[in-house]
Amino acid sequence: MLLNCGQPLPLLAHTDVPPRVIENFILTGYRFPNYSLRECLLSAFRPTNETGNFWTHFLPVFVFLYYFVEVFGWERAPDSGAPFFYPLWNYFIGVFCLLMASSMAHLLNSMSLVVREVCFFVDYGTISAYTVGSSLAYYYYIHPRAGIVEPGGPRGSPDFSLFFDSLYIPSACVVAIICVLSCCNTRQRWREHRYVIRTLVFLLPFLVSSSPVFYRLLLCRSPCAAGTPGYFYRHCLWLLVSALFNISKLPERLAPGRFDIWGHSHQWFHCCTFLSILDELHMIKAEVRAILLDPDLGLPPAGPARLPGPTVASTYGVMLFLQTTIVSIIAGFSWRANRIYGPLRDQLEKQHPERNPKAHLS
Ligand SMILES: [Zn+2]
């Protein structure tokens, strides 16, 4: 909402906003924590301390889309709706929801303290759903028996077939749910160590979901598609750098107030997480291409390995189950947040009567 004279509301210093809203080492550029939806949307085009956070996850949606759709034009690629691509579409859903939820969470979080909490619960939920989307793609395109290596596992390598065949996807789902629960909890307790907990908690799904790649690269040393090792190591590197930004709060820690609008750690964190996603996409595409180009490496039952092919239930069904569980968890935490922060809304309106909608009418 704009002031009557058409000017946007002035931005606030960290001393003028509720303690809940304050980010470490960010001193200015805060929006009033009771913006209308329209004010929030318009704030994407004015320099606040959330503007960079919004754009660094919103623009990547289009970059990701550009590289993603290329797959369907490849030689020997089946129709985009074919079962072969179900896992890839689930990966797309995971990434798309993550980037959109994250950018919208940063844009809309100044509607109220309760909305702010809900925005970040949704953010954590979509990160977890993304890890399961990745796992589905890994399972069908990078699994040790996704047609690349000989049936029964390569000779001389440890046999983890029980884990990869039966436990891999359920483990990814359980870990994702633990992540949502833990991260949502850091907004209501364990506040002091929240950045460390959130970073560590997301290390676990990374390790579980990446296990087929680690296995292929480090243990069985089965042939990977050209480029896969490079893309994977770069994917890991970007994740590591993003975690360092998230925990260290550099560069704003060194010069509080200097990076309030542009260049603070969360923006670098967003950039690095997107670069890691992009390398992951390139890796998955390289493996998809290898399967498409060599008919002998086709997904079973066409190929020699025993891995069952993707079905609606084993891909979209898993994703739907996970999303439903995550939505229920978020609803529970949101209800609790409303009880904690709801009363503060009335308090804020009393302190700032000019922000009360009724005051605008009079
Ligand atoms: Zn963010």
UniProtKB/TrEMBL annotation:
Zn(2+) binds at residues 106, 266, 270. Pfam families: HlyIII. InterPro entries: AdipoR/HlyIII-related. It comes from the Eukaryota. GO terms for molecular function: metal ion binding; signaling receptor activity. It is a multi-pass membrane protein. The keyword Zinc applies. Its main location: membrane. The chain crosses the membrane at residues 52-69, 89-108, 120-142, 162-183, 195-219, 316-335. GO terms for cellular component: membrane. Keywords: Membrane, Metal-binding, Transmembrane, Transmembrane helix, Zinc. It is found in: Membrane. Belongs to the ADIPOR family. This is (Atlantic silverside) hypothetical protein.
